[in-house]
Amino acid sequence: MLPSEIGEILAVDCIVSGSFKTSKPMSDAAAVAVGVLLGGIGSTQTAVCNMDFYDTRDDELIVNYNKKVSGGLGSDAQDLINVLMR
Questions:
Q1: Could you tell me which residues come within 8 angstroms of residue 30 by beta carbon, excluding any fewer than 6 positions away?
Q2: In 3D, which of 73, 84, 79 has the Cα closest to residue 33?
Q3: DSSP string over the chain
Q4: What is the mean pLDDT of the chain?
Q5: DSSP output for 25-42
Q6: Fewer CB within 10 Å, N side or C side of the chain?
Q7: Between residues 57 and 35, which one has the greater pLDDT?
Q8: Is 38:14 a contact under the CB 8 Å cutoff?
């Protein structure tokens, strides 16, 4: 459905849609091993938030918020979610 169709049904001026994804590219142990072997510790957690704000009067995209954050050793998904939402 188009944002204008949803906006008419809900009687709203703006529709917010998007996605949120967290992943764990490597374990803490793997990050330590990479750090020892290569001299740099990689990301152990990532979170990506992509949100679109549409004007329901003309189906125009008003704002796109797209942010990715990465965490190191000891970070968890909840910490990254808090960073994204602030």
A1: 42
A2: 73
A3: --HHHHHHHHT-SEEEEEEEEEE-SS-HHHHHHHHHHHSS---SEEEEEEEEEEETTTTEEEEEEEEEEEE-TT--HHHHHHHHH-
A4: 79
A5: SS-HHHHHHHHHHHSS--
A6: C
A7: 57
A8: no
Write down the CATH superfamily of domain 3-85. Answer: ABC-type transport auxiliary lipoprotein component (3.40.50.10610)
pTM above 0.70, yes or no: no
Exposed e or buried b per residue across 40-75, where buried means at least 16 C-beta atoms within 10 angstroms of its C-beta: ebbbbbbbbbeebbbbbeeeeeeeeeeeebebeeeb
Using the structure block, give the residue that is written with the tokens 């510790």.
41
- Name every residue whose Cβ is closer than 8 Å to that of residue 62 and which is 6 or more positions away in sequence: 14, 53, 54, 55
According to DSSP, the β-strands at 60-71 and 45-55 are antiparallel
